[in-house]
Design goal:
171 residues; mainly beta; Tumor Necrosis Factor Receptor, subunit A, domain 2
């Protein structure tokens, strides 16, 4: 047998260590798997469920449905589901779509409010009451569920007691 030069021997040893480290358990899981704390790759749980116990050499991942008030909207390797969002009426929000085990609550705004923060999947997360125009102003554009009321000052020779419409002064 031929002796390898010392540099090649070291290179071979480093390569072997790298292969062992990067191809060992848990190095790179498939997209449908998650890595456990022990570094093993286990099949993910489906939407609406979470991991009750990790897989073993003898059994697959044990998944459990999300409890009431929680949801899971993606395949996962998590130990608990996400808490459902609340639509608090005191904050100008109402439930548009109830939380299910696969989807979060979707909120919308109550009458008299507009949405300040809108998320594509969960609806409105922050609402604000429409502003009221003050005396000497009129409502230029009424507020909607997405924009606030727009006010403007009454022109010279007009007045407004309640911030609604401008009325001409009479003598």
């Amino acid at each position: 047998m031929r002796n390898l030069p010392e540099d090649m021997l070291w290179a071979s040893l480093v390569f072997a260590v790298l292969v062992a480290v990067f191809s060992g358990p848990g190095s790179c899981c498939d997209p449908q798997e998650y890595r456990t704390q022990a570094g093993e790759c286990c099949p993910m749980c489906h939407e609406g469920t979470f991991v009750q116990s990790d897989c073993t050499p003898f059994s697959g991942t044990r998944c459990r449905p999300c409890d009431s008030g929680t949801y899971m909207n993606q395949p996962n390797g998590l130990k608990k589901c996400f808490s459902c969002s609340s639509c608090v009426a005191d904050n100008g929000l109402l439930v548009w779509q109830k939380c299910t085990n696969k989807t979060d609550t979707v909120c919308d705004v109550l009458n008299g409010f507009f949405c300040k923060s809108l998320a594509e999947d969960t609806g409105c997360s922050m609402a604000e009451k429409h502003k009221r125009c003050t005396a000497g102003q009129r409502t230029k554009e009424p507020g909607t569920d997405r924009i606030d009321t727009e006010c403007e000052d009454c022109p010279m020779g007009f007045f407004s007691h309640f911030g609604m419409n401008c009325t001409r002064w009479t003598m």
